[in-house]
Specification:
With about 1000 residues, this protein is of the alpha+beta class. Helix content is about 40%, strand content about 20%. A five-stranded mixed sheet has the order 7-11-12-14-13. α20 packs antiparallel against α21 and α20 crosses α26. The protein is extended. The termini are far apart.
Length: about 1000
């Protein structure tokens, strides 16, 4: 029988080559010596990928092993860096030392692959396939073969079938989480085994073993891209591609295309292996996928805290949009565990709170510090809840004589994890207290829930009844004995019986007094009729005792609850056991109602079945619940507006960089061309459009509270008069009414920004009155007490109020809830940007103020603005000095990661006569300053750069030369963009976009001062 052929590997002084097919030796023949040679490999020259140098020749014995014959439908193997289908040509013979390492990597990583690859070859060449024994053995390790489609397309199909009644996102998330976690765990386990077996210590070598092992086990062929940074710590970043992936092939085999990336096991296995290699938590995410129609499968891998930023940087727009809608990507993999933990903790706390109906409820941590308590508990301490929360019960709140005993109870619950109950007497009251443990995920007790109930009256009633019971039992025994001894004492027995009856009546009277003095209302019903009521119920409902007795029981309930109570009463009288405690609405005699909790208990009255109903007014509890829900709504509203502000600020900052490039180039052209040149008018129009764009970004930054503010003391009445006067000339069909408060307090604000607030509110009102109407503006001095009950809680103090009311068309509730969102507009396309009211909101919030809107459809809209009042009595005005072109001399280092900003900025400086060093990032700026620092007169520094942030660059340049002047340039304000810390003092700030004149004036002013760190 013919044996399969193996290539014979020849040693070469620079690289190895394979014999042509007609010179191959039969498999199993012995060379002299009986070993195959493995040497370094040479890759095709490439500007990115370097050649493996030959260090030494390694001898590896290749034992015979049998492989199954190649199938006719065998898929071609993955392509090596030279483009040859190496794996396809060797698919039935196992790995060979003649093929180059199955990976592409940038030059810094080549040394690691050169070192590790011989170990990987040796490992996979020692294979033993024994189907009779049911195992595959490679270098002493047992392997198994699994159909690729079973772990990819078919698995997703199975999950989708199981979740066919659920949303598609749930099935997708379930499949992703399961496959990622499983592959991540396998990758970690394989990495530990390979690192130990091969003695790999350096993180780079440990990483190198991953793609080599990956290719030999059929996962994928890996290409590591040059911008990767495989370093220990949170800066770790790996950017790589899979030319072929077993997961993708399971879809492409049938010509199917998907909408989401599918290489989830590849991502999980790779991040698990690299996580062990570098000792840091890592995550990988696919940003391109061949199953989606992309040219390759491309991944990013990073620390868990950085992965989302890398994903958003490298993923395409369509993939990002789908990720936001379906939430199937990185966020779901890790937020699920945190949410499950929080849910478990919440369930434990809720379970503890429901264990007993408390009058006083408290929640303490394991050390005894108050985390929460209800109003009755706070009243018992004579303080408010806010004053108590955060204090330690055993060191600050309890009397000295109780601290040791109470702490012992508390510690016993924490240590044992078991609930505890005790009763004690304090200040003439008998209290029943229960302590319940609250567990965290690990089973450790972290909190203790405490419920304390006043049982004074209950104990007193029990003791009284016990005494009377003992008395009656004793009397019965005596009377029985006397009847047995003598008949002649009958008259005396009758007299004694009368005494007993009198005692029983007295006992009944005492019981009645206890019932009458109860905190809860109570009535007894016999059949459908009320036969007894206590005083508390009569006070609750506004009836007299004679009016209630004999009334049908359901008439004391609200009409909508009468049928429910009637059905349950009938069931209870029939001997059934319906729900005994529930909430209803009680109806008073005057027709008003209130919420109540009732407890219905069956009993026998005069030998017939009856019902005792206890009623507790829960109006206060309902009111507290409503207040709690309102507070939650305030928090959610604030979080939503803050998130929108952050997004708007980021968009405006990036747009300012674009405007900077346009403004700079136009400024250069206008200064270079003759003033009468025909292009001057066109360039002037471009500058006007840039100003319009800058105004748009100013609105966005205003909404994000990152606008350029110049704060002065202002008279709001004067601003209103001036702005309304100008506005009134544009809409003469609107009648304007001013009601400006006398002795109005001044405000600390930016004049231009407040002008914009007034004007935007007037324009919004005019848009609501296209055919004319009336506009009312009012100012007044107010305090926070006058507008507390809003969707926010204002800070205490004095405020100046501005109200703008129109008689326009008004808004419905849905529109009113969204008017302050950026880009939301009800106007037709092209007639509004949706930034007017968003800008108003941002400006008011940036000035520490509040804004509120009210509207009814067809009745108009009212906006109320509240700005903090100034302590300064006199308003002031300011004027902005125009910029002028000032030429100069010297050397300037300009650092900015935006290429277009850096280019135009350098040309503007050269136009002014300066010599410019350009740095596209912080690291390059530091290198240039180290070489030419003595020549540099000024550093212009952008604060937001990816490779080295502005603050770090600032510090390291100042370490080299503490006196070098530094000018900050940013699309944000100086307060937002400037480096933090008291030790960081810069020499000036310029906002993007800036003109040539503004730049020349700012640079000349700073260089004129010389090298002085203080501005």
């Amino acid at each position: 029988m013919k044996r399969p052929w193996l290539p014979c590997i020849m040693a070469h002084d620079r690289h190895t080559t394979c014999m042509p097919p007609d010179h191959r030796l039969p498999y199993g023949c012995i060379l002299s010596p009986p070993q195959y040679l493995v040497a370094g490999f040479s890759l095709t020259p490439n500007p990115i990928f370097a050649t493996f140098p030959v260090k030494k020749t390694t001898s590896i014995t290749l034992p015979p092993f049998a492989m199954p014959p190649k199938s006719e439908n065998h898929r071609p193997g993955t392509c090596d860096p030279q483009g040859s289908e190496t794996a396809a040509s060797q698919g039935s013979h196992g790995p060979s030392a003649a093929s180059p390492p199955p990976v592409e990597a940038p030059p810094p990583l080549l040394k690691a692959f050169e070192t590790v690859y011989p170990h990987i070859l040796s490992y996979f060449q020692k294979a033993n396939f024994k189907p009779q024994g049911g195992f595959i053995d490679i270098s002493g390790e047992r392997y198994i073969l699994v159909r690729a489609a079973s772990l990819a397309k078919e698995f997703f199909g199975l999950v989708q079938d199981l979740y066919r009644d659920a949303p598609s996102e749930e099935a997708l998330n379930t499949a992703y989480c399961f496959l990622f976690d499983m592959a991540h765990a396998i990758g970690r386990a394989d990495a530990r085994r390979f690192h130990c077996r091969m003695g790999l210590q350096a993180p780079e070598q440990r990483l190198a073993a991953w793609p080599l092992h990956f290719a030999h086990t059929g996962w994928a062929y890996v290409k590591i891209l040059p911008d990767s940074r495989p370093v220990p710590g949170e800066d770790f970043f790996l950017h790589y591609e899979h030319k072929y992936s077993f997961e993708v092939d399971s879809w492409l085999k049938n010509g199917e295309k998907v909408e989401n990336p599918v290489c989830v096991m590849n991502a999980g296995y790779s991040s698990g292996w690299c996580e062990v290699s570098f000792g840091i938590p890592l995550v990988a995410a696919e940003v391109e996928c061949r199953a989606m129609g992309d040219p390759c499968c491309r991944f990013v891998m990073a620390h868990r805290s950085r992965i989302e930023g890398h994903f958003r940087r490298y993923a395409g727009r369509s993939l990002l949009d789908r990720a936001e809608k379906t939430c199937f990507l990185i966020q779901e993999f890790f937020s699920r565990k945190r949410l499950e933990k929080e849910l478990r903790e919440s369930e434990e706390a809720a379970r503890a709170l429901l264990n007993a109906p408390p009058e006083r409820a408290m929640l303490l941590d394991a050390d005894g510090t108050f985390l929460a308590l209800n109003e009755p508990a706070a009243r018992a301490f004579g303080m408010t809840r806010e004053e108590i929360i955060g204090r330690n019960a055993f060191r600050e709140m309890l009397p000295p004589e109780l601290r040791a005993k109470r702490k012992a109870y508390h510690d016993r619950v924490v240590e044992s994890g078991l609930p505890l109950h005790y009763e004690d007497e304090r200040e003439g009251k008998r209290l029943s207290t229960n302590l319940y443990p609250v567990f965290e995920e690990t089973g450790k007790v972290t909190r203790v829930a405490i419920y304390s109930q006043d049982i004074t009256e209950q104990k007193r009633t029990q003791e009284e009844l016990a005494r009377h019971r003992e008395y009656l039992e004793q009397m019965v025994k005596e009377r029985t004995a006397e009847l047995m001894r003598a008949n002649d004492r009958l008259e005396e027995e009758i007299a004694e019986r009368k005494k007993v009856e009198q005692s029983l009546r007295a006992s009944e009277e005492r019981y009645r007094n206890l019932v009458e003095g109860s905190f809860d209302g109570l009535f007894l019903q016999l059949g459908t009729k009320i036969v007894f009521t206590n005083r508390r119920l009569q006070e609750m409902l506004g009836y007299g005792p004679a009016e209630l007795e004999g009334m049908d029981h359901w008439l004391v309930y609200h009409p909508e609850d009468q049928e429910l109570t009637r059905q349950r009463a009938r069931a209870r009288l029939r001997g059934e056991t319906p729900q005994s405690r529930y909430e209803v609405r009680m109806q008073r005699k005057d027709g008003s109602s209130f919420p109540a909790e009732i407890i219905a208990t069956p009993l026998r009255l005069q030998g017939e079945p009856g019902i005792q109903v206890s009623i507790r007014d829960i109006s206060e509890r309902k009111r507290a619940e409503a207040e709690r829900e309102a507070l939650q709504a305030q928090v959610e509203h604030g979080q939503r507006m803050e998130a929108l502000g952050t997004l708007a600020g980021g968009v405006a900052h990036d747009f300012n960089n674009l405007l900077m490039a346009i403004q700079g180039n136009v400024s250069l052209l206008r200064y270079e061309l003759d003033p009468n040149h025909p292009y001057q008018k066109s360039l002037q129009r471009v500058e006007e459009q840039v100003k319009r764009g800058a105004k748009l970004t100013s609105q966005l930054l205003g909404y994000a509270r990152k606008g350029r503010f110049s704060i002065t003391t202002l008279d709001l009445n004067a601003l209103v008069r001036e702005t309304v006067s100008a506005f009134g000339r544009t809409r003469k069909d609107i009648r304007i009414h001013l009601d400006l408060g006398e002795d109005l307090r001044a405000v600390e604000a930016d004049q231009g920004q407040i002008d914009q607030v007034i004007l935007n509110l007037c324009i919004n009102a005019s848009d609501a009155m296209p055919k004319g109407g009336e506009l009312f503006l009012e100012t007044a001095n107010v305090t926070n007490k006058q507008f507390e009950h809003r969707a926010y809680t204002p800070n205490p103090g004095h405020y100046v109020m501005l109200r703008v009311r129109d008689t326009g068309c008004g808004m419905d509730e849905e529109t009113l809830n969204r008017i302050f969102e950026p880009f939301f507009t009800t106007k037709e396309p092209g007639k509004g940007t949706g930034l007017g009211l968003a800008c108003v909101y941002g400006i008011v919030k940036a000035h520490g103020g509040y804004i509120h809107a009210e509207s009814d459809v067809g009745k108009g809209t009212l906006f109320s603005v509240y700005l903090p009042a100034s302590k300064s009595p006199q308003p002031s005005e300011f004027a902005k000095r125009p910029s002028a072109l000032v030429p100069g001399r010297g050397a300037i280092l300009m650092a900015d990661d935006e290429e277009m900003v850096l280019d135009v900025g350098a040309r503007m400086l050269e136009k002014l006569g300066y010599r410019v060093y350009e740095a596209p990032g912080g690291r390059e700026a530091l290198r240039i300053f180290e070489e030419h620092g003595a020549e540099i007169d000024l550093v212009i520094l952008d604060m937001i750069m990816p490779d080295m942030g502005g603050e770090e660059t600032f510090d390291r340049i100042r370490d080299l030369d503490p006196n070098v002047p530094i000018l900050l340039a940013s699309g944000f304000t100086e307060l937002e963009a400037g480096p933090s810390g008291q030790s960081r003092e810069w020499n000036g700030f310029i906002s993007k976009p800036f003109s040539l004149g503004e730049l020349s004036e700012k640079v000349a002013l700073i260089i004129g001062r010389g090298k002085n760190p203080n501005p």
